[in-house]
Amino acid sequence: MNQEFPRAQHAPTERAFTVLLSPTRRGARLARLLTAAHLGAWGLPSEAETAAHIVAELAANATVHGRVKGRDFQLGLIVRGGTLRIEVTDTRGDSVPPGPGAVKPPEDDDSETGRGLLIVEALADHWGITPGPVPRKTVWAEIDLVR
Hints:
With 147 residues, this protein is of the alpha+beta class. The chain contains three helices and five strands, in the order βααββαββ.
């Protein structure tokens, strides 16, 4: 007698990577390189370039605007379902950037700074800022993997 049993339905594989990095240019560069390496290892090479650009901007902001001497920033990459979530957490919760839809380009067209969150807004499907826990804030961006 053969019986058929329904196969178990499994949720999509969740992957996560978190690392503390020094709030320096070197730490920001390492965040970008680690992002590309992990996404490639997870079988997501087509998203790696976009994610690396987003991480580069968020990590640069964490090193410039979120830097507190002696405190690192944290990079988090999470794949859940059909979404890649990028999180950069720094320890300057008192220095909150403008949120989605409120970012303005620099007034001086020749300015070499002030476009990072505009780039994030253009590349990410969703992004935002989560305060806390004190003294932290997290700037996050999501990329839809299923299009």
